[in-house]
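2024-03-11 09:14:02 INFO worker-7 job=invfold-0412 stage=load source=structure_tokens
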């Protein structure tokens, strides 16, 4: 399986990281390898190569059908469930790579950089494009988002990404993070919710 992720998909987050986007720009896509996946709310161990690991809470979509060149109109047939994920990012390395114009794999795709909660069938939500989610760090809410604020909606992301990559059953799409990203430290606890359903609850070790 592969993990496809979208960068700069919420305007307020782009502001907080001083990322200027032009109108009509295409989605920014990067990938994480399958070794990035961390499941079952296992603890996340801080890696030695970064002093600034940031959490980014994101809605994750699970692909249920193989497809390529999928049009927006048919995109809903290709995903069956959503989860909450954390796109852990080595922000110090990312800053360096942005300055150098280098790719993001090392700061975004390292081992365990993609915790993903249990999956919830999409039918359990009234509207996938109006999903509230939030992340608490040590019992304090640090990120709040709603998929209606995504610059590129789920179906648009699927249309765009599937021009380049064949989507396969079990692939995951991280759909971008809202404002409020920040650093994690040893002993921190992350708890994440979609609507009022608690899906993420793990510690930083
Ligand atoms: Mg992200």
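2024-03-11 09:14:09 INFO worker-7 stage=emit residues=205
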């Amino acid at each position: 399986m592969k993990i496809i992720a979208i960068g700069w998909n919420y305007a307020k987050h782009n502001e907080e990281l001083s990322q200027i986007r032009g109108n009509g720009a295409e989605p920014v896509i990067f990938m994480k390898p399958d070794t990035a996946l961390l499941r079952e709310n296992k603890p996340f161990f801080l890696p030695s190569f970064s002093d600034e690991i940031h959490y980014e809470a994101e809605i994750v979509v699970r692909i249920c059908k193989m497809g390529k060149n999928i049009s927006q109109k048919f995109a809903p047939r290709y995903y069956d469930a959503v989860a909450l994920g954390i796109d852990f990012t080595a922000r110090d390395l990312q800053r360096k790579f942005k300055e150098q114009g280098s790719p993001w794999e090392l700061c975004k795709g390292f081992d365990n950089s993609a915790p993903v909660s249990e999956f919830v069938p999409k039918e359990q939500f009234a509207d996938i494009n109006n999903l509230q989610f939030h992340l608490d760090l040590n019992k304090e809410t640090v990120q709040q988002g709603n998929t209606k604020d995504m610059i590129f909606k789920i179906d648009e992301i699927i249309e765009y990404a599937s021009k380049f990559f064949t989507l396969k059953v079990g692939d995951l799409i991280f759909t971008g993070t809202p404002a409020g990203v920040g650093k994690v430290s040893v002993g921190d606890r992350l708890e994440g919710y979609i609507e009022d359903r608690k899906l993420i609850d793990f510690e930083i070790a």
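2024-03-11 09:14:09 INFO worker-7 stage=report msg="The chain has one domain: 3-203."
2024-03-11 09:14:10 INFO worker-7 job finished
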